[in-house]
Amino acid sequence: MAQVNPRHVDAVMELINRSPYFELLGIRLTALGEGTCTAEAVLERKHLNAFGGAHGGAYASLLDCGAYWALYCSLDEDEGFTTVDLNASNLRAAGPGPVVVTGSVVKRGRTVCLCEAELRDAEGRLLAHATSKMLVGAHLQPMSAAVRELGAGALPPKFLA
């Protein structure tokens, strides 16, 4: 596969970081590469359950984002994909504070891919782990749809010539 264009990666991260759900949860993509992704968030009161700990849904959203975006650079230009399932294990409670999610591609298939993600606190302690299957297809959430939805201009080419 051709080398991913760093200008494209920067433009995609800027675009996705201003998407409504990322803004709602305070998620920020910080790195995107071939089979990898890193995102950060600061758990705040809005992420907590009634007992003062991070809500499992917040963990799941962060894990899904990490697993999902890890696959992006492994796909052809404007090839779409969507999450089929997310199997999350919450391993440690966390309260307010910074967290980092890292995602990776375990197995890239033609139409189904297996990805995983880990969520860690600022001290590097593992908070949660997930595996996720992704369905790949041209009609499934291609980047061009995000560009249209968010009113962005044309992105640089995904791959260097």
UniProtKB/TrEMBL annotation:
What is an example of a Pfam family matching this protein? Answer: 4HBT
Record-level Gene Ontology MF annotations: fatty acyl-CoA hydrolase activity
Spell out the CDD domains in the cross-references.
Answer: PaaI_thioesterase
Q: Residues in domain Thioesterase?
A: 51-127
Tell me which UniProt keywords the record has, alphabetically: Hydrolase
NCBIfam families named in the record: unchar_dom_1
Please report which protein family the annotation says this sequence is part of: Belongs to the thioesterase PaaI family.
What protein name applies here?
PaaI family thioesterase
What is the organism field in this record? Answer: Eggerthella lenta (Eubacterium lentum)
